[in-house]
Amino acid sequence: MPITLYGTEEQKKKYVPKLATGEWFGAYCLTEPGAGSDANSGKTKAVLSDDGKHYSISGQKMWISNAGFADLFIVFARIEDDKNITGFIVEYDKENPNGMSFGDEEKKLGIHSSSTRQVFFNETKVPVENMLSERGNGFKIAMNALNVGRIKLAAACLDAQRRVTNSAVKYANDRVQFDTPIAKFGAIKYKLAEMATSAYVGEAASYRAAKDIEDRIQIRQDNGSSHAEAELKGVEEYAIECSILKVACSEDIQNCSDEGIQVFGGMGFSADTPMESAWRDARISRIYEGTNEINRMLAVGMLVKKAMKGHVDLLGPAQAVADELTGIPSMDKPDYSELFAEEKEMVAKLKKVFLMTAGSAVQKFGPDLEEHQQLLLASADILIEIYMAESGILRAEKNAKRFGEDNQKEQIAMAKLYLYHAVDKVNQKAKEGIVSFATGDEQRMMLMGLKRFTKYQNQPNVVELRNTIAEKLTSENKYCF
Questions:
Q1: pTM of this prediction?
Q2: CB of 205 within 8 A of CB of 244?
Q3: Active-site entry in 276, 289, 343, 397
Q4: Euclidean distance between CA atoms 437 and 369, whole angstroms
């Protein structure tokens, strides 16, 4: 990705074909012992030679995937006392290591099939023409690579969820206890339905963001941008969604694999079944491509920064919600005859919860909001649940219109089930924020508003929804959506 988007035409001609055909393998060297989440704090140095023809790179990188067999390394180092790091393309030849050496293979909790090693550079010479992009542009390259990596990681987690759910459904159908397949038991139906629901909604949100990015890339190309520049900016514009997906899907696969072990019972704890490795492999997803805590704070932080720059109107709608709280609630009886009418209204009200809490926090703390990390985390959880729940509803609604509601009753059930959980989570996180930064009449007013904005007119039958989903899964003997 970095070479494709940032490399010169000469660099692309030289390296991209070899990487694309598998003749060469690549590795990405960013993380250091003292530079993890704070990627721009790396100590690896790049010193220009007296003749100005090459840089000598010295330093240490860790957690480098593919390091054990890579031919090409994207290495980030700091030139002199530059504020930001710089990217370099470094070739590796084991016959002429050029100051490069490697640590032993890391013994990891999961992803055992992935080569992970430390990489050491001792005055590794790199031609000046192998600088990637411009001097000091490395941090930007790294962050944009992470944005792409986050939505791709979400897709990887979703595939894992589908496979875990498939295995759990098959085992539940085959495993007989008390003369009954355990798939018939309500406790197992609960688990299978929840596993499938999170996968379905994750798919919906990922497709939604991917299409938005694809459309934005096309618009920029139509306006004269090169494909590389259009792709770079297109992904950058949806960085918030990429962070949302990374967090949601990585946590869903962890929950899914954990429940998968539980469906398998004692056998799930055995390395002879797929659940043990699935659970271990899932754990890294909450750490790499930026920890979930960092991504939560990034999602809200980026939105707040856009608002402060005038790119997004956050305070205007927030004030409108505040005015609504002091007004008289409508007594009109709503019409919920259309599919998802009430669910869409609930999503709209959840957005008001976000505006009420996040808007008030911005007004109270301004630029200092980033110092209140627990409030940012709570706001991020609200934002995530809104985006995911709305995506599931949009997908199910579209399919119901295409194929008929009776044909899509399980997808409708999943969209409704996810929203039900989202409402509870939003209520919990918003209350946590409100009681932490608001006091007196302001707090009482906001808590009243929260109760109003998280209230269903018609509560869904959650057990019936789960049973509908689980029966479809067990009849098809797989994740079938």
A1: 0.94
A2: yes
A3: 289
A4: 11
